[in-house]
Amino acid sequence: MAEVGTNVAAFLGKLWRMVEDPETNDLISWSENGQSFLIRNQSKFAKELLPRYYKHNNMASFIRQLNMYGFHKIVSPDAGGLKTTTNDEVEFSHTYFIRGHAYMLEHIKRKVIFFLIVMKTNFSFW
């Protein structure tokens, strides 16, 4: 298993270890090409796996975090909508979250909320 660097956010390091762990493949694993990861059985994933890594069992919160770090849900162009292989499977990708390339994780940054920038810089746009 590739080592996660020290400049990587805790959320991302935990996600990497979870996807890489062969013991969790029934609930979360790399896609066939390694460019994305799949979560199977979302309710079981949230109930059993999330608490082991993130100390909560809230799937919506987990997905919100993925979105904050720039992950995208995979959509199927032929279906014209969200990719669905089963009703309870979801797939996410990020340019820098690639199997075998843990060193790229340090390039994934949390999105900065504009309001916080305004508050920290005392900038007024009115």
From TrEMBL:
Example GO CC term: the record gives: nucleus
* Keyword Lipid metabolism part of the UniProt annotation: no
Annotated ranges, domain HSF-type DNA-binding: 50-74
The protein's matches in PROSITE patterns, at most eight in alphabetical order, are given as: HSF_DOMAIN
Pfam families per record:
HSF_DNA-bind
In its UniProt record, a GO molecular function of this protein is: sequence-specific DNA binding
Where would you find this protein in the cell? Nucleus
PANTHER family (UniProt xref): HEAT SHOCK FACTOR PROTEIN, HEAT SHOCK TRANSCRIPTION FACTOR
What protein name is recorded for this chain?
A: Heat shock factor protein 1-like isoform X1
